[in-house]
Inverse folding.
């Protein structure tokens, strides 16, 4: 699949195909966040997408094509959201799906994969262990592999979120100078590069510090494997970005940003309490990156791809615990 | 002001005036909530409105008119959201604002009123005590009173949220059979009655059990004062609905619904974890009401006015604490 060359027009084709099959998520502004950033932030609320993340776009497109080819089932590895999306998309098409999850997947994501009717197999904690399990299932069942990021349909599918944001801005008579997208394996940000090609928008891939496989790869001029450090952004831990995403990122001039754990947690809270949006830490990485970027003072309109909102109650509990002492809680749950 | 008679066309006029002055909030669907209700729920996300609630609509309209009349300032009593909205709208117009809050107002709402630059006066815990304080300020300053619900501009302003929802549905080629709106003093639901007049949509006013001043008033055929019981829905505690809202509610055939505390808390959690929207318990009352209504099986498309999202960290903490034990929390905030 790595011989594939993707072109910007393919994102437009994908968007036309996905029209009516995925949600057109709203573009949201928040006065308090704008004030904080000192510029206009245009939030693309993909946490409101079916399945709770933008991964539904790539999964619907990819699985739709599997069905066209007469495939009988799919297998995918994921830390969560891609697994949920593949499980839900397969259910839409009545296709069998097997999802390989790490043993440290967050329980709310496991529950959502299972609720969609997919078979779940747990395989270690590393990408290699999961990929090995994928091969085993593929060999046994003959089902097609739906890679989480190194897959053309997934890349152009995820890219439609960016294309939709650009169209929404255009209808408002506005435009972006910059766009910030969280980077795990790089599928979403590669799609964003394709979607913005020729627009003059600077695309930034935001990664947790210590999980900056894209940043290090771009600096080295080749894909670099990192040993991911622990992060609250559980969706952004791949040790190595995809070959196809990396090639696109390099070709289209992706810039890299890293954010620390403290700013990710803060951005998750700000999105919630000021933006009124539940986003997962992996999505808040984009907001943290945009706030960081805004400090450089070069941009007046920054797009922020809030990629998903599948979060655990335990994380919310910790987040609220940090802030509740700052107020006098008067409303008691009876 | 009680001699005023409001007509449906005035909501349309208000909407035209407010166009570009308030946010067109998104209409959101959530598969999981639809499945739970067994029908289509069309969520109007006014938690994403400027100031975090639909009260901004009435406040912008009302204060805009005060400015046209040459007024120098406004005074308003509120349990929170109307106060935030008046403070923010006054700031937009550069007008002085004094907000009378109860001593048990939630601290996050107090902070938001103050952040908007308004003067805050605390006055007891009852509506009577706050109204007395309003009179005192009006007499002393000559500033106009912006009542939280018994005010024509506030009623038609709040009604524009419903009108906007109807327009969004029409663009989607859909329509409502029913609409559920939370009831405090009745301004929002009276606006909804005007906005839906002649459409055949059944409008339901949802109240916390024990704070059902509108329900009891409609049953009695006259305004009835209740002794409000404690509720997590801190915005819906007025002991008596407004005269003007009550007259509109009766004339346009408003129906009443009550929901218990448990279902309000549950709806707040569902909106958050499934809908990915932070709504305050007073807004979740509409979702709880819609779920209750859906059980009666007569409706296929129910509109839900999610009126606001200003919530305390302490409440979120309690809410998450109830659910975190059901999962194995693996993501730790460092």
């Amino acid at each position: 699949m790595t011989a594939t060359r993707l072109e910007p027009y393919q994102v437009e084709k994908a968007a036309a195909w996905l029209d009516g099959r995925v949600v057109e998520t709203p573009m949201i502004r928040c006065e308090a966040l704008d004030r904080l950033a000192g510029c206009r932030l245009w939030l693309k609320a993909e946490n409101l997408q079916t399945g709770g993340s933008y991964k539904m776009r790539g999964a619907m497109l990819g699985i739709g094509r599997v069905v066209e080819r007469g495939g009988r089932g799919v297998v995918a590895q994921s830390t969560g959201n891609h697994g949920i999306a593949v499980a839900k998309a397969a259910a839409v098409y009545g296709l069998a799906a097997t999802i390989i999850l790490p043993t440290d997947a967050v329980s709310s994501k496991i529950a959502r994969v299972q609720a969609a009717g997919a078979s779940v197999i747990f395989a270690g904690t590393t990408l290699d262990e999961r990929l090995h399990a994928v091969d085993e299932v593929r060999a046994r069942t003959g089902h097609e592999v739906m890679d989480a990021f190194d897959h053309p349909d997934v890349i152009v599918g995820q890219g439609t979120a960016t294309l939709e944001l650009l169209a929404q801005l255009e209808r408002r008579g506005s435009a972006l100078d910059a766009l910030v997208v969280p980077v795990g394996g790089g599928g979403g940000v590669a799609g964003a590069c394709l979607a913005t090609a020729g627009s003059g928008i600077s695309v930034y891939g935001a990664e947790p510090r210590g999980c900056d496989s894209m940043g290090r790869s771009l600096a080295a001029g080749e894909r670099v494997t990192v040993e991911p450090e622990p992060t609250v952004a559980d969706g952004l831990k791949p040790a190595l970005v995809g070959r196809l995403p990396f090639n696109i990122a390099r070709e289209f001039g992706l810039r890299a940003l890293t954010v620390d754990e403290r700013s990710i947690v803060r951005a998750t809270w700000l999105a919630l309490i000021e933006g009124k949006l539940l986003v997962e830490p992996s999505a808040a990485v984009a907001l943290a990156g945009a706030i960081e970027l805004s400090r450089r003072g070069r941009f007046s309109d920054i797009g922020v791809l809030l990629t998903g909102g599948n979060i655990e109650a335990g994380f919310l509990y910790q987040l609220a615990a940090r802030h509740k002492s700052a107020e006098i809680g008067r409303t008691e749950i009876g």
Remarks:
- Residues 152-171 of chain B form the longest helix (20 residues).
- Strands of chain B lie at 27-28, 40-45, 73-77, 96-101, 119-122, 144-145, 178-182, 202-208, 255-259, 301-306.
- Chain B touches chain A through 53 residues (CB under 8 Å).
- The mean pLDDT of chain B is 94.
